[in-house]
Write a structure and sequence with these properties.
Layout (H helix, E strand, L loop, with lengths): L1 E7 L5 E6 L12 H5 L8 H5 L6 E9 L6 H14 L6 E8 L9 H11 L8 E8 L11 E9 L2 E4 L1 H6 L9 H16 L38 H5 L10 H9 L4
Parallel strand pairs: 3-4, 3-5, 5-7
Antiparallel strand pairs: 1-2, 1-6, 6-7
Helix pairs in contact: 3-6
């Protein structure tokens, strides 16, 4: 199941969408640890949230040369994990650059293949591993009116289309880059944590009936913003990334999180 953040190219409206055909949880390669990191999005929410099995988290953050995310966004992502997950032995980020795969714009299958070729960190006995890739090109799903900024496509994997993010930030009338990156990263990881109703059970009726797997509270990080073009401006107008609302937090807490 694909989780998208799209920004209307004229109005910078935040648009979040999902499509079942983009679930790339098929298993290739050998070894149970590899298979455990190639499951459907949201299926490992409890493992990521609680310390029942995994006492620590490692984030393997890989970016194409020239498309490194900001330090502020990485720090904000770690803070998000610390605020919502129980990992008494800590959270580690291992960051490295790779050369361009050279086949942008990227299909979903190509993004998964890049992970398969470059990922080195998988779950161990007491550490859960996350793959985060920052791409040097656009998604092939981009249209003339909207672009994809990020996708959560496996239980511990997500991609940020950093070239697109850079093109839509840090200019007049555009969001601050670190703020936009933070919003995209934490939204995508919210889906990996099972939000909304994507592996983490609802504790109250707050799933958007018109936009499945998203929260119906318009100030929540997991909200599917309207398509009118006001989304991103409204959500980051206060100078900080949107936060999870109380109902999403209650869902995470019931599934082992903070």
């Amino acid at each position: 199941m694909k989780k998208r953040i799209a920004v209307l190219t004229i109005c910078f409206g935040l648009l979040l969408s999902c499509s079942k055909e983009d679930d790339l949880s098929n298993v290739s390669g050998t070894g149970s640890s590899i298979a455990n990191n190639k499951k459907p999005t949201g299926s490992s929410a409890n493992d990521l949230l609680s310390d029942n099995t995994f006492k620590s988290t490692v984030v393997e953050l890989v970016y194409v040369v020239g498309f490194e995310p900001t330090t502020a966004a990485i720090n904000n992502f770690v803070a998000f994990l610390e605020a919502r997950t129980y990992k008494p032995e800590g959270i580690t980020v291992i960051k490295r650059a790779i050369t361009s795969p050279g086949n942008a714009p990227y299909t979903n299958e190509e993004i998964a293949a890049i992970e398969d070729a470059n990922r080195t960190k998988y779950n161990t006995a007491n550490q859960v591993a996350i793959w985060a890739f920052f791409a040097d090109g656009q998604s092939t799903s981009d249209t003339s009116t909207s672009v994809i900024l990020g996708t959560a496509y496996r239980n511990t994997s997500f991609v940020i289309y950093e070239k697109t993010v850079q093109g839509l930030s840090d200019s007049p009338f555009e969001p601050n880059r670190a703020l936009l990156e933070t919003t995209v990263i934490t939204h995508e990881f919210g889906h990996i944590l099972g939000l909304t109703n994507l592996g983490t059970a609802l504790q109250s009726n707050h799933e958007d009936t018109a936009h499945a797997k998203h929260c119906n509270v318009n100030s929540c990080l997991m909200f599917w913003s309207s398509e009118t073009g006001n989304g991103i401006g409204n959500m980051v107008s206060g100078g900080s990334a949107p936060q999870l609302d109380a109902q999403c937090i209650a869902d995470l807490r019931a599934n082992g999180g903070k």
